[in-house]
Amino acid sequence: MTLLSVRKVFQGIADRRQMFRMFDRHAQRPEPSPDDAHLYRGEWFEVGQPEHDYMFEILPPLWMRGDAFAMREYLTGSITSVLFALTIDNNLRFFHAYCDLSDRSSSERMRTAIVERESRPVKAMTREERLEHIWSSTHDDYRGYAGERCSKHLWGKRTVLFYGGQRGTVLKLLDQLTDAEILAKLPVHLRYLPDAIAA
């Protein structure tokens, strides 16, 4: 599975339930292994201050640097949660990100990417952000990975169930959803945001 290096995976502010669901968006991946760091590296989303503070109070942080702290427990390999409290357009906002701590500059690059993305003057979403939001917000029972029922070259690709009208419910590859199918899967308040140019 090929994923972008830094990617926003949820539009809006995740509440505690959503935050915990997104901590392991790839739990259903086929044949999980310690080498799955590429699935998580670079994922980020916004959380509220209560969620940020809750994460701070769970365990003593691995490190604290100004407006960020890293969780002590690693998700896989050298990937761990880094939480940020960033002032963007004069508003204090909070973010969760997965950074690879084997790269000393990863948290700083993540901070820069978040500020750049969230400083855009108009709310907008790229196609990739729309697909990531659909994946993040779809219940585990309705998303998964292509397996033996599909052609071998598709194995491991992300899938979602989609209501196909007279054809009934069909399994579709996430990255092959049409624009109309993406709009149908997005919540109403996100359907008509303008397209953003990927950075």
Automatic annotation (TrEMBL):
<protein>
    <recommendedName>
        <fullName>DUF1419 domain-containing protein</fullName>
    </recommendedName>
</protein>
<dbReference type="Pfam" id="PF07215">
    <property type="entry name" value="DUF1419"/>
</dbReference>
<keyword id="KW-0614">Plasmid</keyword>
<dbReference type="InterPro" id="IPR009862">
    <property type="entry name" value="DUF1419"/>
</dbReference>
